């Protein structure tokens, strides 16, 4: 088109050539605007704009635009990866109620021997200790934990050949390994000092105590139930705390 402009001698011919050039440029600009609008709708507004299939026919081919860099980039190389599976981590099994749930090398154990009521006032020659029954409870001292080891000798009365043993110490929760001091400390740490149960669980593990986090949650709910108002004469956590010698 520039050659046609150069060969035109008369001004009228040059004007005619310029008008043709301008018309073609206007047409190309119109096509470019339509293509830009198509890209705006389909690349940046898929969720808010409705697709218009008629716009596909209005696109200009990249080869029609001229210039360099019109060749589409080659498709990236692909690699097939073999499928694999992962083992599901096993959940830790909580320790049995009658087994050791702590590390004796990390946690102090305080032994408490409970006398047998049937042997009170008897001469040692009148009975013999044949075995022992041992139970453990997790207790708490200020800023520390301790295991209370209750030893209850099983004795045999020689006169009647009867085996007797002191009963297990009664706690605020039936058949629980948690001492009342541990319950009180756990609740105070959680609600007064904002110490979450998972952090208390981590602290127990650092001190050699192996218990589950759901166990701490169950103890918390049980302790809160004990704090409900009681009728006159009933026992609750307050009476146990006031008369407890290990708090």
TrEMBL record:
InterPro entries named among the record's database cross-references: Transposase-related, Transposase_IS66_central, Transposase_TnpC_homeodom
Protein's name in the database: Transposase
Region (Disordered): 66-100
Entry's transmembrane regions: none
Domain Transposase IS66 central: 176-229
Record organism: Ferrovum myxofaciens
Record-annotated Transposase TnpC homeodomain domain positions: 31-91
One Pfam family, short name: LZ_Tnp_IS66
